[in-house]
Design goal:
Helix content is 99%, strand content 0%. With 167 residues, the chain is mainly alpha-helical.
C-alpha cells in the first residue's frame, strides 16, 4: 500500500502540476492576448490621434493660408482706396488751385487794365488841365494885354488931356 499511495501521491502531484501548468499557460495565453489587444488598441488610438493631429494641422495651415490671402486682398483694397482717396483729394486741390489761379489772373488783368485806364485818364486829365491852364494863361495874358492897352490908352488920353490942359 505504500507503493500505491506513492503512486497516488505522484499521480496527484502530476495532476496538480499539469493543472497548475495548464492554469499558468491559460493565464499566460490570456495575458498575451490581453496585451496584444491593448497594443492594438493603443496603436489604433495613437494612429487615430496622429490622424486627428494631422487633420488639425492641415486645417490650421489652410486657415492660415486663407487668412493670409484675405489679408493680402484687404491690404490691396486699402491701398487702392488710399490711392483713390489721395488722387481725388489731389484733383480737388488742383481744381481749387486752378480756380484761385484763374481768379488771381483775372484780378491781375483787371487791375492792370484799371491801372492803364487810370494812367490814360490821368494823362488825359493832365493834358486837359495843361491845355486849360495854357488857355487860361493865354486868356489871362490877353486880358492883361487888353487891360495894359486900355490902361496905356487911358494914360495916353489922360496925358493928352493933361497936355491940352497945360497948353
Amino acid at each position: 500500500m505504500d507503493q500505491q499511495r506513492k503512486q497516488n501521491i505522484n499521480q496527484a502531484a502530476e495532476q496538480f502540476t499539469d493543472s497548475t501548468q495548464q492554469a499558468f499557460r491559460t493565464l499566460a495565453d490570456r495575458t498575451i492576448s490581453f496585451q496584444e489587444r491593448n497594443l492594438r488598441l493603443t496603436q489604433t488610438f495613437v494612429e487615430n490621434w496622429m490622424e486627428q493631429v494631422s487633420n488639425l494641422t492641415q486645417g490650421a495651415r489652410e486657415a492660415t493660408q486663407d487668412l493670409q490671402e484675405q489679408g493680402q486682398r484687404q491690404r490691396e483694397a486699402v491701398e487702392t482706396l488710399s490711392e483713390e482717396g489721395t488722387n481725388a483729394y489731389t484733383e480737388y486741390l488742383n481744381s481749387a488751385l486752378s480756380f484761385y489761379q484763374a481768379a488771381l489772373n483775372a484780378g491781375t488783368q483787371v487791375g492792370q487794365q484799371n491801372i492803364q485806364q487810370g494812367a490814360q485818364a490821368t494823362q488825359q486829365a493832365v493834358l486837359a488841365a495843361s491845355q486849360a491852364a495854357s488857355e487860361g494863361v493865354e486868356q489871362a495874358i490877353e486880358a492883361v494885354n487888353q487891360a495894359g492897352q486900355q490902361t496905356a490908352q487911358a494914360i495916353s488920353e489922360a496925358g493928352q488931356q493933361g497936355a491940352e490942359a497945360a497948353n
